[in-house]
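Worked problem 6 (solution included).
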Amino acid sequence: MAAPTDALRKLQDYARKAKETRNNAPLSVDSSAYAAQLEVAFEELSLQVEEEKKALEQLRSNVGDSSIDEPSADPKERLQQLQIIKAAYKNLTEAAPKLPSPDSLLPALLAVRNTQQVLIESKDSALITHQKLSEARKFLDQGQADLRDAQLITAALKDRIARLTIELQEKSQKTPEEAAKALIASQEQRRQLLEDETRKLVKALARFIKSHLAALLAAEELGGPVVGDLLDVTDEMLAAGFNPRGNAKKRKTQPVEVDTKRQSRIDQIWGPQDGAISEGNEREAAATEMRLLTEDLLNVAAEEGTKAYVTLMRDSAAARFLVRAKAAQFHPRDARKLRLIDFGRELDE
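Solution. The predicted structure is:
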């Protein structure tokens, strides 16, 4: 154990001397001096490589024909191989470590190389860790979303089970006559609720037609843009009309002439209108036509079923709007017939 301890002591002494040399050396940024130090370090390495080559050749010459690459089957040759290996290890252990001079740049270069390698490996590890973290976060988010969905479904199922249990208990405690009366009362209450909601929706539709949709329908009837292309249509634009490109004309004629032309145009498109001529008659005529058309469609659907058609007097902007809105559809072989789309036909009441 003395030889390894002595070698370790020599390495520690070398490290101490190299540190003292670096601390005592003046700081310099001279590139020529740095290049000279690199040249010296290169020469030291070259000399060491030559010495190692010579030692290797000498070792090969001493070994002769014996080879230690593979164990020999002959016991004598095997013993000779082991003696050669022992001598080599002993020689290396007792020999002083071959170290560069304390002021050499070789230790610093080796440290820089190792540091760069550690940095590269650290960056790669950071990227891999970041990727794994992102995947873990996505997996966690998906798991949390699935958990929320499962909790909502569980709560809904529990509520449904509780309501069914209560209904079952109530039915089991009632006679058939009481159950029938309760069912009739429930259906009547539901019918009344649907009628109230229908009246509210019809009133809301009438308000929407009068305040927003009527002007857009009138503009389309007068040759203006299709409903939805222009959202702000004024009474002045309706009174002036639209050119073939769909743009509003400028009002240049006298008021009396305008009123005469407007009334004639209204009668031609929507038919004779009741009441005196007033600003916004186009809007009112379009609103009346849309309201009557929706009432006819709803009445026919309620009385004759959703497959019944309403016969149109003309191709109107109101009918085209309902078709574009997917609320109604023309007859496949007669464009003069229109009916509501039964979008709720698959619902089991």
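Discussion: The beta strands are 310-311, 328-330, 337-340.
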